C-alpha cells in the first residue's frame, strides 16, 4: 500500500514568465506522456502534469525535495532559467489551487482551466501517476476551483481566452456584418464560436480536420454558421474579416497568401505552437493578435475582478490549511497504525503463551468462551494503554512536534531506522544520481528542503 506521505515538488513554464514558444518547448508532447516519463524515473512515486496553451507544468512526489527537483532535469532543456519556476512542497499545493481557481490564468478567473485540471487528473490516473499525496492535492484544487466560481464573481465577464479573442477581434474590426472564420472545433474553438455569436456575429465559418465536429459546433450557435474541412482553409480565409485559430497543429496552418488582397482583417492566434505564419503580421491590412499580445484585455479584466480575486484568495487560504491538516492527520494515523500493529504482534504472542500455559495447567483445551475472555482482556489492556499515546500523537502532528513522532516510530516500528527523512533511499549511490544531487553527501540534508518537510517523518524508504 502506498503511504500518504512524501514531498511534492513542482515545475512551471507559464505565460507569467515565459513566451508562448517557451511554453511549447517545455515538457513532453502531451500530459499523459509527461506523467509516464516522470513516474518511470527512480524514486518518483506519483506524478501529475498539466499542459494548456499558456502553461506547461508537472508535479512529482518523492521522499526528498532535491530528488524531486532532479526529476525535472530534462523538462525544459531549451528554455531559459528565468522562464522556469520551481515549486517546493507547500508552493506546489497552493499553486494547484490558484491554477484551478483561475488566479494564475492569462484571463483572470477563466472557466476553461478547471476542466483542463480535471482532464489532467484523469490522464494522470490513467498512467498510474496519482497516489495518496496527489489524490488529496489535485482533488482539493478542483474543489477550490468549484467553490471560487460558485461563491465569488471571479468568472463574470470575459472568462476565457476564446472570449478575450472575440472581444479583441470585434472591437478592433469596425466592420458591419463581418464574416468570422474559426479554425479548430475543440474546447478553445467552441468557446470562440460561442463568444463571437454572443457579440452579434451572425456569419461564421468553422474549419476543422474532422468536418462532423465542425458541423456539430456550427449547429450549436444562433448564427448562419457553416463547416468546412481544413483543406479548404485558404479559400474561406480570403473572404473572412476576422479569423480565430485554435488548432493543435505542429506547423502553421495559415499563410500570408489568402490575406494579401483581402482588405482589413483581424487575426487572433490562440494556438500553441502558433497557427499563423509570422509573415501574416507583415501585411499592411492585417492585424495579428496572439497569446502574448492579449495583455491589454486581460489587464482590464484583472482590474474588474480584483475584489473577487481577494475573496478567492481567502477561500484558498482556508482550504490550504485544511489540506495541510489533512496530511498531518494521515501522518499521525500512519504512526498510530504502526503502534497498534506492534502492540497486536505482542498481544498475539502473549495470548498464545497464556492459553498454552492455562491448557497445560488444566490438562485440557480451553473452551471457546474461556479463549474469548482471555482475548477480550488482552484487547482491553491494549486499547486502554494506547489511548493516551494515540491522543498525544495526534496532538503532536497538529503542532508539528516531529520529535514525539520520531520517538514513537523508533519505539513501535521495527523497520524505522531513526532517520525521518534520509536524503537517499537505502542502497542509492549518490554518484549515480543526476547532477543536481552530485554535491550532496550521504547523511546531509539539502539546504533547499524546507524545515516542515525535513521534519515530516512518515515517508517510506
UniProtKB/TrEMBL annotation:
Keyword set includes Transmembrane helix: no
Site (Important for activity): 95
CDD domains according to UniProt: NAD_bind_Glutamyl_tRNA_reduct
Keyword Secreted: no
Catalytic residues (UniProt): 53 (nucleophile)
Residue span, Glutamyl-tRNA reductase N-terminal domain: 11-152
Pathway: Porphyrin-containing compound metabolism; protoporphyrin-IX biosynthesis; 5-aminolevulinate from L-glutamyl-tRNA(Glu): step 1/2
Biased composition (Acidic residues): 445-461
Record keywords: NADP, Oxidoreductase, Porphyrin biosynthesis
Domain Quinate/shikimate 5-dehydrogenase/glutamyl-tRNA reductase: 175-297
Binding site for NADP(+): 184-189
Residues of the Tetrapyrrole biosynthesis glutamyl-tRNA reductase dimerisation domain: 311-413
Its EC number(s): 1.2.1.70
Region (Disordered): 440-461
GO BP of this protein: protoporphyrinogen IX biosynthetic process from glutamate
Family per similarity comment: Belongs to the glutamyl-tRNA reductase family.
Task performed by this protein: Catalyzes the NADPH-dependent reduction of glutamyl-tRNA(Glu) to glutamate 1-semialdehyde (GSA).
PANTHER family per the UniProt record, alphabetical: GLUTAMYL-TRNA REDUCTASE
Name this protein carries in UniProt: Glutamyl-tRNA reductase
UniProt organism field: Natranaeroarchaeum aerophilus
